[in-house]
């Protein structure tokens, strides 16, 4: 049997792939820690982290070990059976959070689908079919399935896929009056991100969160926190809700949970979970032993004071460098976010130009993200070496100078 694969290049993408992505001109082939290398051997420092997924960097030895150990034991058994890694990971998540029950899936969107189905089901069982309305926030992002893309508050992602599912409305984020006006006895759930990630790294106002919690309780609506991006240590706590003093009824998480291996989870309390009786929901791959073995290793490493406390220290280094860049250039109007989810908001003169900064950063050898057209987003590994931060921010500073001189 030959393991030889055909030689491929970026140009092949346009020949064989559905054109819904516009990948960079180079193809990464290898990663270690916070560095990646492309086909030509060029090295880049990675502050994008696979969009907040590679929470422990690339090819962390403990994750490689967990994956390869499990690969030699048992890959998949279906949900006709449970399995040891899934039970171990569920116990860890229950021990570490408000939750008492866990459902595993494979992506953020699927975890949100499960959360929203659970909320509808609970309301249906307790109050009848009329209590089915879901309130979400404008500019939110909750995934790309037909339902979650409509729950998300960005029409650019949901337009053209109609008819839209019914029972979903959107209110402005951080707007107490708008939430008070929207919520009523028909509301079964409010879903929100503790920090709006995709649309600009915008943190929730604590007073707003507190009021949303009260309103949900008054109206028998469930509060869902979408922590797909903020979860698993990203903000310096295992989950961002721990900073807020507000406890959700349902929490979804995904991105960093597998450190790059696909896995997601929906967490909730027993009195809610019990409504998803046998046969009401499922997934073939969710909770499979490979994914859960990696998830166990991720939680074992990240849910420790050493890693969680290190997030704030690393964030401070990046923020200080962004401040230096801004003192020199004035390209930012604000640096916001929490922990290692950092948004550098472009100043008036640079509105809409985040793409220019990304392209220049890549040329300078550092990978960063956008969060909408006006924000440059940093979501590096939670264990990124301070030396990599220093060198990467140096490269980013060069990139910013490059953008400025090219525009002059
Ligand atoms: C990325 C993201 C999702 C979607 O996750 P997928 O794994 O792409 O389905 C949902 N919600 C938030 C907040 C996200 O950042």
How would you summarize the topology of this molecule?
Elements: H1 10-16, E1 28-32, E2 35-38, E3 43-46, H2 49-52, H3 61-71, H4 84-96, E4 101-105, H5 108-127, E5 133-137, H6 146-151, H7 155-158, E6 168-171, H8 176-182, E7 187-192, E8 195-196, E9 202-203, H9 206-218, E10 222-226, H10 241-244, E11 250-253, E12 264-268, H11 270-273, H12 289-302, H13 305-329, E13 332-338, E14 341-346, H14 354-364, E15 366-367, E16 369-370, E17 375-378, H15 386-407
Helix pairs in contact: 3-12, 4-12, 13-15, 14-15
The structure holds pyridoxal-5'-phosphate (PLP).
Describe this structure in words.
- The chain is an alpha/beta fold.
- It has two domains: 10-60 and 305-407, Aspartate Aminotransferase, domain 1, CATH 3.90.1150; 74-302, Type I PLP-dependent aspartate aminotransferase-like (Major domain) (Aspartate Aminotransferase, domain 2), CATH 3.40.640.
- It contains 15 helices and 17 strands.
- Helix 13 packs parallel to helix 15.
- The protein is globular and about 60 Å long.
- The model has no long low-confidence stretch (mean pLDDT 97).
- The chain binds pyridoxal-5'-phosphate.
- Pyridoxal-5'-phosphate (PLP) binds at residues 107-109, 112, 141-143, 193, 197-198, 226, 228-229, 254-255.
């Amino acid at each position: 049997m030959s393991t030889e694969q055909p030689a491929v290049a970026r140009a092949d993408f346009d020949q064989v792939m559905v054109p819904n992505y516009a990948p960079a001109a180079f193809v990464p082939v290898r990663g270690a820690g916070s560095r990646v290398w492309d086909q030509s051997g060029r090295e880049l420092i990675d502050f994008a982290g696979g969009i907040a997924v590679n929470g422990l960097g690339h090819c962390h030895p403990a994750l490689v070990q967990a994956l390869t150990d499990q690969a030699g034991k048992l890959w998949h058994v279906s949900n006709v059976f449970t399995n040891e890694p899934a039970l171990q990971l569920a116990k860890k998540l229950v021990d570490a959070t408000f939750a008492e029950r866990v459902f595993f899936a494979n992506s953020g969107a699927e975890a949100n689908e499960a959360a929203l189905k659970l909320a509808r089901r609970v309301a249906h069982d307790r109050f009848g079919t009329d209590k089915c309305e879901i309130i979400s926030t404008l500019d939110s992002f909750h995934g790309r399935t037909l339902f979650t893309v409509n729950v998300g508050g960005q029409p650019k992602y949901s337009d053209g896929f109609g008819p839209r599912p019914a029972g979903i409305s959107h209110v402005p984020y951080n707007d107490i009056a708008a939430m008070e006006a929207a919520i009523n006895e028909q509301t079964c759930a409010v879903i929100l991100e503790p920090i709006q990630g995709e649309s600009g790294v915008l943190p929730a106002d604590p007073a707003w969160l507190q009021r949303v919690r009260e309103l949900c309780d008054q109206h028998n609506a469930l509060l869902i926190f979408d922590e797909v991006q903020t979860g698993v240590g990203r903000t310096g706590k295992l989950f961002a809700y721990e900073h807020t003093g507000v406890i959700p009824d349902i929490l979804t998480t995904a991105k960093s949970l597998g450190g790059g291996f696909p896995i997601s989870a929906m967490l909730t309390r027993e009195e809610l979970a019990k409504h998803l009786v046998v046969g009401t929901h499922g997934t073939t791959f969710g909770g499979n032993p490979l994914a859960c073995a990696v998830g166990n290793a991720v939680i074992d490493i990240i849910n420790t004071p050493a890693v969680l406390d290190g997030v704030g220290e690393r964030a401070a280094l990046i923020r200080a460098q962004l401040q230096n860049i801004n003192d020199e250039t004035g390209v930012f109007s604000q640096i916001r976010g929490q922990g290692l989810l950092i948004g550098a908001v472009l100043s008036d003169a640079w509105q809409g130009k985040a793409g220019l900064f990304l392209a220049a950063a890549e040329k300078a050898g550092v990978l960063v993200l956008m969060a909408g057209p006006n924000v440059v987003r940093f979501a590096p590994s939670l264990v990124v070496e301070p030396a990599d931060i220093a060198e990467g921010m140096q490269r980013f500073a060069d990139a910013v100078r490059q953008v400025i001189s090219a525009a002059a």
